[in-house]
Design a protein that fits this description.
By secondary structure, the chain is α/β, with parallel strands linked by helices. The protein has 21 helices and ten strands. The chain has helices at 4-18, 22-35, 40-52, 56-69, 74-86, 90-103, 108-120, 124-137, 142-154, 158-165, 168-171, 205-211, 214-220, 234-237, 265-268, 287-296, 318-321, 350-355, 368-376, 387-394, 435-445; strands spanning 184-185, 196-200, 224-229, 243-248, 258-261, 304-308, 337-340, 380-384, 399-403, 424-428. The strands form two sheets. Strands 1-5-2-3-4 form a five-stranded parallel sheet. Helix 20 (387-394) links the parallel strand 8 and strand 9. Helix 5 (74-86) packs antiparallel against helix 6 and helix 12 packs parallel to helix 20 (387-394). The radius of gyration is 25 Å and the shape is globular.
Length: 450
């Protein structure tokens, strides 16, 4: 309990929190918590404010303080679970979720968040059970359905996974509802003969590269295929077999009869693990670009190892995917040339570029035709899970992909190969965060230096 005056202050702090005035709300709640250390409401409000600000260490600490006052408060347990999960402490988070659900078994959000923690531990069968429990409580819970899709897909259950993955439009942070377009959405059932079909990118560069292969299948079913993708990909993907015309996102589009998001194509074509279209290569660098980059790299000795160690900072999971370049030092050997095949180099990595003697051409990579030609000029590509890994795989180049312990769905689990990219070899962390061990294994697998 709080003193009457403090209760008035906390009501005001809660109102300020609801209005988004977080600094003011935090100042009031902090003052009350300092004056009354046993005020559960003050500690609980500070937990919520820290969560809204994504200050997860503070969030966990305030939730712990609240639980010291009321150890059986289910929401405080669930909130600390969220903070611990965001800090990568998934086993501890799972314990909090289990305690919270023992107290409040009907909390759909807690079932969903428990599933996310389980998925991060690669315990996907249990994660699916948690998501299903959340959906049983709240049938329209699209976030839980989307999360379930990711576990279904990464475990190879494509039949269920592609269906559930359609919930991404409203159940993931990547979207704000389906795109509104003229014509009819194509779900794979309508005959394509004599129809113009727009296929459009909706997510990242790597997704567009991976799924552009389906344009060929649509063309073979009789469609005239229009492809709308990110501007840096437009010219390269225009050359995919079956693409009649390519457009950059935002460019005016001609008339079309049907449309389909690229990420919905595996569902439309009823893709299973044994029917993934993997007619590789389906991308090649243009001849003029190949010639220019062969000349550009003529003075760089072979073998050449192309490196892509970081992706877009805007990806929520980037910290789990990108790595500091300095960690790739074991790849440097006399007689082996290291070549940066990514366009953007972070300031924190520039010292490592110089220290490792990496050839960098960031200002010369104007679009993905240049990147493709640079990839083609290398003997092997080493990449984290970013667009370069997809590009090298789509080109049929040897690519070693560095994966975190809990990988993105497209790389599946417990295998070194990829049914999407037959020339890829996957190097997985055996323990979460153990990057050095996986890099050591990869370094040993590179072609020997003569």
């Amino acid at each position: 309990m709080s003193a009457p005056g403090s209760e008035t202050e906390l009501r005001r702090a809660a109102a300020l929190f609801g209005a988004g005035r977080l600094d003011e709300a935090r100042a009031i709640a902090t003052a009350v918590a300092t004056r009354e250390p046993r005020s559960f409401i003050a500690a609980y409000l500070l937990t919520a404010i820290a969560a809204r600000l994504e200050q997860w260490e503070d969030c966990a600490a305030f939730a712990t303080r609240a639980l010291e006052i009321d150890p059986r408060h289910a929401e405080a347990l669930a909130n600390r679970g969220i903070a611990l999960r965001m800090l990568g402490r998934h086993v501890e988070a799972l314990a909090d979720y289990d305690r919270a659900l023992a107290l409040s078994p009907g909390a759909a959000d807690t079932h969903n968040n428990r599933g996310v923690a389980l998925a991060a531990l690669n315990r996907h069968a249990e994660a699916i059970e948690s998501y299903t429990a959340a959906l049983a409580i709240k049938p329209g819970y699209e976030r839980a359905r989307f999360n379930r899709a990711l576990s279904e897909l990464v475990t190879g259950d494509f039949a269920a996974g592609w269906r559930d993955h359609e919930s991404r439009w409203t159940g993931s942070e990547m979207h704000h509802g389906p795109r509104i377009l003229p014509g009819r959405a194509w779900d794979g059932r309508e005959d394509l003969h004599g129809k113009t079909l727009l296929l459009y990118a909706e997510q990242g560069l790597g997704d567009a590269i991976q799924l552009a292969r389906y344009a060929t299948l649509a063309h073979r079913r009789g469609a005239r295929v229009l492809l709308e993708v990110h501007a840096p990909l437009k010219e390269l993907l225009a050359e995919v077999e079956g693409v009649d015309a390519a457009f950059a996102l935002g460019e005016p589009l001609p008339a079309f009869d049907l449309h389909c998001a690229l990420m919905s194509l595996p569902l439309a074509f009823d893709t299973r693990l044994d029917s993934i279209p993997a007619d590789i290569p389906y991308l090649t660098a243009p001849a003029a670009h190949l010639e220019r980059w062969r000349e550009r790299l003529a003075a760089i000795a072979r073998p050449r190892v192309g490196l892509a160690w970081s992706g877009s900072r805007t990806l929520r999971n980037d910290a789990n995917r990108s790595i500091p370049l300095a960690l790739l030092a074991p790849l440097a050997r006399p007689g082996r040339s290291l070549v940066a095949v990514q366009k953007d180099i972070r300031d924190a990595d520039r010292a490592a570029v110089a220290a490792l003697g990496i050839a960098s051409f960031e200002n010369e990579l104007h679009d993905f035709r240049d990147t493709a030609a640079l990839v083609a000029a290398c003997d092997v590509i080493v990449s984290v899970d970013t667009s370069v890994a997809h590009l090298a795989g789509a080109m049929g180049r040897t690519v070693f992909v560095l994966l975190p312990f809990s990988p993105d769905w497209r790389w599946l689990l417990d295998r070194e190969d990829s049914p999407w990219y037959p020339t890829a070899r996957l190097f997985r962390q055996e323990r979460s965060g153990d990057r050095e061990a996986v890099i050591s294994r990869l370094a040993a697998a590179l072609p020997p230096v003569k």
